[in-house]
Structure formats: structure tokens, C-alpha cells
Design goal:
The complex is a heterodimer. By secondary structure, chain A is of the alpha+beta class. Helices cover 38% and strands 26% of the residues of chain A. Chain A contains 11 helices and 16 strands. The radius of gyration of chain A is 28 Å and the shape is globular. Chain A starts with 9 loop residues before the first helix and ends with a helix. Chain B is mostly helical. Chain B is built from 10 helices and no strands. Chain B is globular and about 55 Å long. The chains are: A alpha+beta, B mainly alpha. At the A-B interface, α1, α3, α4 and α11 of A face α3, α4, α5, α6 and α7 of B.
Chain lengths: 376, 195
């Protein structure tokens, strides 16, 4: 170890994170290597600067604020009721509307009851008191797990298929991970759930996920890509042809298929198609012309003409798309994309033209980090 | 406040957490008192913005109150809490960055003591410069630095809190240290000279 330069080990060396032998090797190397010594001085300065950060006392009144918010939350009813304004006394039109609604619901319920009586539907056994997999709650309609209708609550086990018809919606509570709501006309399967991986497959339909767990613990398989949660909230839809559309509303999601990766941040979308995998992500506020050209380039063999239109329509923020395109085009075309990116947002110090053209991973990541300020 | 302090003195952290899981508000207050400065410090140095630090700290503890029943003791509580802090910091920043530019803060109550008034002033100025420079780093580089230097975590603990490998922590700290040094090179004399 450390026969080469020790630049990568220098922070760990300064922080005392290396073993005694490793530290001695680094120290010995520093004695004879001017280049590593220069880096060491720089990192040492960074360390000394960071050490100046003090712990800061939280404001004294903070607990009373938090307690007030907790009290307010406790006072909220479980189901929000709109009281006092919708059906006030003395408004005959609204009373009439209410009466009509009650009648409609009554007639509808009676018809559903008759239909259920004539078409027997297997009802799931009463749920056990503790669900070892994912507890589910029916929000509307008559969702089914493996063909059995679930009542108010149920348990979604590994290997089972959860289906919703055109009126049903289901909430899935994934312990320590977050919540997923399944929209009508959907089919989802629970693939696995364990300490390191919680995975479901969306065969068709739509789901909305709010994930509070650390990144890379929650996964959704679709026919054309795998969605990897990186700490976020998102909606994922899949149509009957297996075409998917991801829309991220908080944090980041990564889409992967056959080595093709798309990082999709908040306010961005990405389409996926069978046989292609994830397309190139784009911000939802990009121009229609930009989106159309990108779709032609990704999925319709739009080639050079489509790419030219994408570059021409791109704004600063659309460097999200261009950053991905850098990694999806051949080297001569990469230079064109790179030129456009530099024209739009400039080039940070941590990247070189040569490095980007060679797809140096560290430089690409550094540029992506720097673009944070442009994208959000 | 006094009740929370008494509770912290007579119960272990594990007992306090179990009481929190049962919905005991006093236990939650005790837990808050134990961790509030650490959470606030990370949020403040992360954002360089007192209002955001206040909001993030509130969000963290409200979230903690909601999800503490899911804590299973298979990871350290502090590590688990730091994950929530990291997520809240990055989410809040994304939400705010689209609308409000960060503004430097002038005065904060630090917990450092000792030294004359002039020294204390210089230290505050230096800390303010470092905080401002850190708030310009990407969140990926910022969080390992804060967990290392404000909370004093080891690389292994940082990796657990940020759910990444020790190698990633090492590489991000390397990049963070270098970028910090580049931004504040003009303070080299002040820093190295004081050693």
C-alpha cells in the first residue's frame, strides 16, 4: 500500500483515521514526495479551518414552539372535516344538493350490495393482529390482494399481487421506509422486504411514494427500468405497453436499466421505455419544443437533428439533460454537447475539457454537484 | 425544562426512547434537551441561516416524534437521528433555494468559552467565514464535514449516518477540505500561525 501517491489518504491521515502502519507509510511518503506534500498542506489547512466550527446553542424558546406544534397536531381530527361552511342552515340550494347526494349514495350502495350478493367475491380472512410484511389500508373502492378483497386494512406479503380497479386506492405503510399510495387500475407485487432492501414491482398503473428512509433502501421495478430511491417523494406511472413516466416532487430518484442511469431530481421527469430503458431526464418547466426533441432523440431515432434541437432549446437549467447526454453520445458529439454546456453555465474548476470528453467519473460528479446551484 | 433535566438524570437514553415510543411527552422533552444543540448546530452550519436552522430543527423533532416508534435499537440512536437531520437539511435547502438566497448571519450564541473578548471576537469572525464557505459547498461535501467537526463522529459513524461507505466519506472529506482551503486560502496565516 502507498507505493503510489497518497493524496486520497490525506484527509484520513489528518483525521487520525488510518492505522499506525498506514500512518507511518503516509508520513514516509510525504517526506519524499513534493506533490503529495503540497496536497497535504492544502488539506491540512482545510482541516484546521473546519475545526473552527463551534457547536451552537439552539434558541431557548424552541421547545415551546415544538410543543405548540405537537399540541396543534394532536388537536387535529384524524379525518379532516370541513365544518360550518359547506352546509350552513338557511341555504336551501345546498340542502337540496346534500339530500340529492345522500339519495345517490343510498341508491349506489344498494346497487353495489345487490351486485355483491349475486357475484360472490372471496373475502380475505380477518387480518392477523400483527402484519409481518407491509400493512395496507384501503382508501377507496375494493382493492384485492392475490384475488381476495381486502377490508379496511390488510397485510401485503412477499410474492403477493395487489390490484386496484378503476375506483380503488390503497395506502401501503412500509415500516421505517415511508408510505406508498397505489392509484386506481394498478397492479403491484411485493418482491422483497428486509433490512437492506424493500422492493416492489409496478406492473401497470400508478404509485405515489413518500420515502423518509436513507437512500438506496426502497426500489420499484417496472417493465422498462428500476427506480432507486435516493431520499424523496415521487410519482411513477406505467401504461399497458410498459412505458413508464417518473415525476419527482422532492429529493432524487435514480432510474437504471442495463447500465443506463438517469438521476432525476425534484421538479424533473423521465420517461422509460421497454427495450430502451430510462430516457434522459428533463425539468418539467422545459419548453415543449425541448421536450419533444428530447423524446425524438431518446426513443424515435431522432439522431443529430433531434440533438441539435435539444441543444438549441436548452436553458441553463436544462444542463441537467445535457449532463446526462454527455454520457450517452459518442466522443465527437460529446464535444458539441460540452461546448453548449460551457456556453450556458461555464465550467467549474474541478473539471477539464479533456477529462469530461474521457468521461472521468470524478469530474462528472463534481460538475453535477456544482450544477446544483443552477438546477434548484 | 427542569422535569426534562431530572428525567435525563434518572433514566438511561434507552429508557427515555422507550418512553417516547409510548407517547410520553416529558420523555420527548428530555430527548429534545439532550440533542437540540447538536441538531441545531448542524442545521445552522449547513445553511448559514438562523431561520432555516430553526425550521429544520423543528422539522427534525416533529418528524422524530412521529417516527420514533419505528426505531429498533439495531443502529445507534444518534446515527439514526443524524440521518433524519441530513434528509431534513437537504430537503429544506432544495425547497428554499428556489426562492430565497441565503444571507450571512452576524451574531450567534456559540458554546465556546474562554479567552479574552478580542480573541472571542476573532474566533467568531473566523467561524463565520468558515461557515459561509462551507455553506457554498455542495450538500454532499458539507454534511460529512459537519458530522466530523461539529459532532466529532468517526468516519465509520459518518458512513452509517449518511448510508454510504467509509471510502465515500473519506473521498468527500478530501474534496471538502480542498475546496474549503481554496476558498479561505487568505486565512492561512491566521490559522496556521495560531498553532
Amino acid at each position: 500500500m502507498f507505493t503510489e501517491h497518497v493524496v486520497k489518504e490525506l484527509s484520513a491521515y489528518c483525521n487520525g483515521e488510518l492505522s499506525g502502519d498506514q500512518s507511518r507509510l503516509v508520513a514516509a511518503h510525504l517526506l519524499k514526495c513534493e506533490r503529495c506534500n503540497r496536497e497535504y498542506e492544502r488539506i491540512r489547512l482545510g482541516v484546521r479551518l473546519a475545526e473552527q466550527l463551534p457547536q451552537v446553542a439552539a434558541p431557548a424558546e424552541m421547545w415551546s414552539d415544538i410543543e405548540a406544534l405537537l399540541d396543534a397536531r394532536d388537536r387535529q381530527p384524524a379525518v379532516k372535516a370541513r365544518t360550518g361552511t359547506w352546509f350552513p342552515y338557511g341555504r336551501p340550494l345546498q340542502w337540496a344538493t346534500a339530500t340529492a347526494l345522500v339519495l345517490l349514495i343510498g341508491v349506489g350502495s344498494f346497487m353495489i350490495y345487490r351486485r355483491l350478493r349475486t357475484t360472490p367475491v372471496p373475502i380475505a380472512e380477518p387480518e392477523p393482529t400483527t402484519c409481518m410484511a407491509w400493512p395496507v389500508t384501503s382508501l377507496a373502492g375494493a382493492p384485492r390482494i392475490d384475488g381476495h378483497r381486502i377490508k379496511a386494512t390488510g397485510c401485503f406479503e412477499i410474492g403477493e399481487l395487489l390490484e386496484t380497479d378503476d375506483t380503488a386506492r390503497v395506502n401501503i405503510d412500509i415500516p421505517q421506509i415511508g408510505e406508498v399510495e397505489i392509484a386506481p387500475n394498478s397492479r403491484v407485487r411485493l418482491v422483497t422486504t428486509n433490512q437492506n432492501e424493500h422492493r416492489m414491482a409496478l406492473e401497470r398503473g400508478k404509485l405515489h411514494a413518500l420515502i423518509t428512509a436513507p437512500p438506496r433502501l426502497f426500489f420499484v421495478d417496472t417493465p422498462s427500468a428500476e427506480a432507486i430511491d435516493l431520499g424523496c417523494e415521487y410519482t411513477l406511472a406505467v401504461d399497458d405497453a410498459g412505458i413508464g413516466l417518473l415525476h419527482v416532487t422532492l429529493g432524487w430518484v435514480m432510474l437504471v436499466r442495463d447500465g443506463r442511469e438517469s438521476y432525476v431530481p425534484v421538479d424533473a421527469m423521465c420517461e422509460t421505455r421497454p427495450g430502451v430503458g430510462p430516457g434522459t431526464p428533463f425539468f418539467e418547466d422545459a419548453s415543449d419544443a425541448f421536450k419533444a426533441a428530447l423524446s425524438r432523440y431518446d426513443f424515435e431515432n431522432g439522431g443529430e437533428a433531434a440533438l441539435r434541437a435539444v441543444l438549441q432549446e436548452a436553458r441553463d437549467r436544462d444542463t441537467l439533460t445535457l449532463w446526462h447526454l454527455l454520457q450517452r453520445v459518442d466522443e465527437p458529439t460529446r464535444a458539441v454537447v460540452l461546448n453548449r454546456m460551457i456556453a450556458l453555465v461555464g465550467q467549474p474548476r474541478c473539471v477539464t475539457r479533456k477529462g469530461i470528453l474521457k468521461l472521468d467519473r470524478e469530474m462528472l460528479d463534481c460538475w453535477k454537484d456544482a450544477l446544483d446551484l443552477v438546477w434548484f | 425544562m427542569e422535569q426534562a433535566v431530572r428525567m435525563s438524570e434518572r433514566m438511561t437514553e434507552a429508557q427515555i426512547i422507550e418512553a417516547c415510543k409510548a407517547g410520553d411527552r416529558d420523555a420527548f422533552h428530555a430527548l429534545f434537551e439532550q440533542y437540540k444543540d447538536r441538531v441545531y448546530s448542524i442545521a445552522y452550519h449547513f445553511s448559514n441561516d438562523q431561520a432555516m436552522a430553526h425550521d429544520v430543527t423543528q422539522q427534525v423533532f416533529l418528524k422524530l416524534f412521529t417516527v420514533i416508534a419505528q426505531f429498533r435499537h439495531d443502529a445507534g440512536f444518534a446515527t439514526w437521528l443524524y440521518r433524519i437531520v441530513a434528509n431534513c437539511c437537504t430537503d429544506e435547502q432544495r425547497r428554499r433555494r428556489r426562492f430565497v438566497p441565503f444571507s450571512p448571519q452576524l451574531e450567534v450564541k456559540t458554546m465556546t468559552t474562554g479567552g479574552g473578548q478580542e480573541n472571542a471576537y476573532q474566533r467568531r469572525q473566523l467561524a463565520a467565514s468558515v461557515r459561509a464557505a462551507i455553506s457554498e459547498l455542495s450538500p454532499k461535501l458539507r454534511l460529512p464535514i459537519l458530522l466530523k467537526y461539529v459532532e466529532g463522529l468517526s468516519y465509520e459513524e459518518i458512513a452509517a449516518a449518511l448510508n454510504c461507505s467509509i471510502g465515500t466519506v473519506s473521498s468527500r472529506l478530501n474534496r471538502g477540505h480542498k475546496q474549503l482551503a481554496t476558498k479561505l486560502e487568505h486565512l492561512r496565516g491566521e490559522i496556521i500561525g495560531s498553532e
